[in-house]
Amino acid sequence: MTPHTATPAITTGPLPASAKIYVPGAVHNDIRVPMREISTHPTAGEPPLPVYDSSGPYTDPEFVPVIHEGLPALRADWIARRGDTESYAGRETRPEDNGFARGDHLVPEFPAKRAPLKAVKGKAVTQLAYARAGMITPEMEFVAIRENLKRESVASQRDGDAFGATLPDIVTPEFVRQEIAAGRAILPANINHPELEPMIIGRNFRVKINANIGTSAVTSSMEEEVEKMVWATRWGADTVMDLSTGRNIHNTREWILRNSPVPIGTVPLYQALEKVKGIAEDLTWDVFRDTLIEQAEQGVDYFTIHAGVRLHMVPMTVGRVTGIVSRGGSIIAKWCLHHHKESFLYERFDEICDICRAYDVSFSLGDGLRPGSIADANDEAQFAELETLGELTKIAWAKDCQVMIEGPGHVAMHKIKENMDKQLECCHEAPFYTLGPLTTDIAPGYDHITSSIGAAMIGWYGCAMLCYVTPKEHLGLPDREDVKTGVVTYKIAAHAADLAKGLPGAQARDDALSRARFEFRWEDQFNLALDPETARDFHDQTLPKEAHKVAHFCSMCGPKFCSMRISHDIRAEAQKEGTEAMAMKYRTGGDLYMPVNGAAEQG
Amino acid sequence: MTPHTATPAITTGPLPASAKIYVPGAVHNDIRVPMREISTHPTAGEPPLPVYDSSGPYTDPEFVPVIHEGLPALRADWIARRGDTESYAGRETRPEDNGFARGDHLVPEFPAKRAPLKAVKGKAVTQLAYARAGMITPEMEFVAIRENLKRESVASQRDGDAFGATLPDIVTPEFVRQEIAAGRAILPANINHPELEPMIIGRNFRVKINANIGTSAVTSSMEEEVEKMVWATRWGADTVMDLSTGRNIHNTREWILRNSPVPIGTVPLYQALEKVKGIAEDLTWDVFRDTLIEQAEQGVDYFTIHAGVRLHMVPMTVGRVTGIVSRGGSIIAKWCLHHHKESFLYERFDEICDICRAYDVSFSLGDGLRPGSIADANDEAQFAELETLGELTKIAWAKDCQVMIEGPGHVAMHKIKENMDKQLECCHEAPFYTLGPLTTDIAPGYDHITSSIGAAMIGWYGCAMLCYVTPKEHLGLPDREDVKTGVVTYKIAAHAADLAKGLPGAQARDDALSRARFEFRWEDQFNLALDPETARDFHDQTLPKEAHKVAHFCSMCGPKFCSMRISHDIRAEAQKEGTEAMAMKYRTGGDLYMPVNGAAEQG
Question: Which residues take part in binding substrate (chains A, B) (predicted)?
Fold first, then answer.
């Protein structure tokens, strides 16, 4: 066997001025929760700022990735200790799993194949089942620590409007358990994805973001596919959906899963369709079921299932401007029409639940009839499906399965809140996971922006996870820079939502960056930014010299006009004589001015 | 005299598939209101779509710009006909007007100097004075036609929430007059800027956007400075602020004004400070007054005046995270502290009004104490100044001066509405004009995005004009691409706001583009976009071949998975048998599914 060495194609190493730290558990002593701490200049006199870190070991300077081996199986012991799973000879890989790719076209299998686990007969191995049983799993304690980000040491500002969300001062493991038990949050973590660092999706926690990746039609290497996932998480993607189509779906997914520190979601229907050579009408329950097992054994953490698309809803889309824009939704609609019956997703939903229950695959109930244009938002078809998703939620919950609900799409600002309110009501507070929404249709090439507006707003109103949109949406496949732009844009939307909800401690990073700005600590300003590289690059384009990084002015105003410098002078005066004294001194100013002409009342 | 030929540095020519049209007036028969009409493919069977056009003659294929001559004086006759102005020998240009630039460093004077106009003694020549007198000026009829965009021929959707704004089905000249008379809208149009195509700023009209430009410290040519303005208006800037500092301020501004089809705003304090060599304490009312006259004679359409910063408010900023971030505000604060008295802006406000009244320069009452960080939003200092701006509004109105109010800045989402509501209340419904606001501080390099979220929201709530923010905000000076990105981003925010307010006809462009998307009319999709070039470029990066522009699928799904194609199949079926029949046929589907396990009620 050849030795596996580090793959240079994978981006590693810390972000600027950042250290990886690990916070130990208290209930469970073998958990180590990763965070990133950003240091500031000693003159700031500030402790390092902890920030949420979705990047996994790749940003740990001690870690050397060997993608042929995959990440350490962090959760293997936790899963084993529960004693409710068994190892078995998994399903054999078949030619159709990889779209019949052969020879040079076939991406190699991941070398270190593990036998899959499943629940022992009759057991539910979901975090929901454990939560309902009163268990605080290591996963739950992990996310509690992760969500807090040491917030106990940060002065917390609580002036947001959370629209009914309950954001505790401190997230305790018991709070996490309660939220999962109530179905208000999910902890997507397939027992066959032990490499995963647990995270939680629910409106009483930080707003999360998802990035979509997928194999290109042109051949791409394992390194490239793994790197797409690593790159997206480096900039902040909390989960990644693998939306690959075509050849090599199975093998590529294995490489991604074995190297992914974040939950991986898929739309199993895409692979099932490949297995029937793209003919929607040829899909069967058997093919679909086989695909679910295949993916569950690999460790996929959540499945998008478009079971809410029902036969009688299809005609509701005929009068729309853009019909059905969800790929999954349209495949199912076509199948339903052709066979003149309800889909196997709907009819066999309880069997799908049985599979999810045995591996802890979370549901992401797909919105197959989401609006694809402003004109179609909040229409009969969309809300009819949402009601069905609410019914399916109860069925899944009855089977101890974790559920979140997918949402739109294209929605003008004034119709966004109705989406959130209806979702909470119809789906019994199961977490909402939306794509944007885009607030106008007229800006292809800028749909990361049209959608960041809607995403920030729906995040504020209570949406738990925001699926990113890249600048290439509607036009082409995102490249590396587009993925980064999409992720950073969505981190902005999610953070803006956290601030507006009043998440304790969320403002700490804004304050740290603003202090750096006010004190002309340029390096700190870059380092505290969501994207330090771009911030530094933009600054250097105008003032490239190193000396300017310590200049007490900036390129916009230059030294003469600097408003911040003047504020420092004012502050210095106040410090000299005391703020109160200063205020008193100037308070008399209030009566100085008597206008020559009295102000007449005007319209 | 040398013949003046077209300057190649100026961007001219129509946007793709666009024709310039001119709609004649009915009340005034010498007005021709420009619009852009975007044509679609004949297969669409749709009339050309009229869109708002701020680009002036530069996008008219008949027009050849000669920047040494300037644009035609469109409004000269209208102004003359009113018989209330007189021509006079204007103020002589002085060395300090151009920052003492000489020789090669001095930008040449604009060659075709016109004697300035001012009001004959005792007259107010403002659109507000005319509106109050019951006059419908040509400017008013111009903006009425411009705002309508032929909306009488567009099926108008009215499902927005306008938060108390009154958006009529059709904008009549009389409606425009009433809005101006009530102070709810301004029509910035200095009598010495006859080249301007009138536009209106008020919450009962389309939301507008402003782009800032300025000379760079490094020398730049007249063509370059004019081109900055032309470039910003080409992409949709409704007004342009010239925030130049340093040398050549006077001469550069003259070149811009003579060639500008949009209102030009300035912060006169910047030039006044140059005249006293950057020493704030040395500013005097005489220097400032002289600068106002200088700029009013040139034709500046609106002045930012920071008269709301009062002595007793300065100590309120001491405890802030980022102090005073407005340049004008900090200059005035420094002056007030040094002289221990109220500023000449505040004390001489009525004399400033007299100047504005004689030339119809609109006020943009500056928010010198706006928050520069999330932490400082909606604080005592900010709202104290806002109340003073409300008092000043009444004084200006009493002098027949037009007024808008500047607003923040950095504000988290949950505090935005309070800004709008307080502004309407304190400032008696004078139009609001905000910078963003940015909804988080943590993304330098992406502040066009952090602020587009806030801008869209405050536009929806009633803000009349949004000042753009470019990706370089806080970091450096925007280049050409940054200006375009900023303008397009703000067109998105403004349009999202118009949609959410329910502006009649606003959705027509979204619908046209979405129909093009659904029908795979790729060229139409590009042409209807805010930025056709970028949309086309992004598409070509994935599917470059010309044939793909007519392909009935796109790069994201490929031919097999195309959801839209499947929708077309469904639609075809409905057309064959009738939608009603189709709905009936599938309605029975509603009862097919009986879950094996009844759904238990869960938390």
Answer: 212, 241, 270, 306, 326-328, 367-370, 406, 433
